Amino acid sequence: MQTFAVTLGRGLLGLYFLLPGISKVTGYAGTLDYMALHNVPLPEVLLPITIVLQIVGGLMLIFGLRVGQIALMLAALTLAINLGMHDFWNTYEGVDEGRETQNFVKNLAIFAGLLVMSGAEDLPQHRFFGRG
User: Fold this and answer.
1) Of the four listed, 12, 28, 41, 60, which is most buried by Cβ atoms within 10 Å?
2) Is residue 64 exposed (0-12), middle (13-18) or buried (19+ Cβ within 10 Å)?
3) What residue ranges of the chain have pLDDT lower than 70?
4) How far apart are CA 106 and CA 35, in angstroms?
């Protein structure tokens, strides 16, 4: 049961990054605008980096590759995104502060899950292709 729970949790965390990474590709201009609205520095540089980290990191979690290191990297990315993009303490025209607060708290939970996953290397893990 523990192996199943860790594998399922890892897969769901991986999807949490893979799908938004893909949506940033399809909604590239809108994401750049949202980053600019939140005064994120160098969005033209940071957005492609974020996309690669989310897609590759998400896939690596899903397939059980370098889980501890990838979970820590995605935890750092989540914290940076949380502070830069879900800064509910600032007011932006057209941005719902309540929704930003909800996203901030949700991302803290994702951050916590990634920290747990990074330390779960001692737990039994199952890879989707062979045993890990």
Assistant:
1) 60
2) buried
3) 1, 121-132
4) 19
* Residue 12: strand pairing partners: none
Delimit the domains of the chain by residue range. 2-122
- Structure-token match 């729970």, residue found: 5
| pLDDT mean across residues, the chain | 90
Beta bridge partners of 131: 126
**Cα 12 from chain centroid (whole Å):** 11
Here the tokens at position 125 are 């893990």
CB of 114 within 8 A of CB of 71? Answer: yes
| Contacts of 69 by beta carbon, 8 Å cutoff, 6+ apart | 118
pLDDT tens readout for residues 1-10 = 678 888 899 9
Instruction: Classify the phi-psi angles of 60: left when phi > 0, otherwise alpha if psi is within -120 to 50, otherwise beta.
Output: alpha
For the chain, the first-to-last Cα distance in angstroms comes to 16
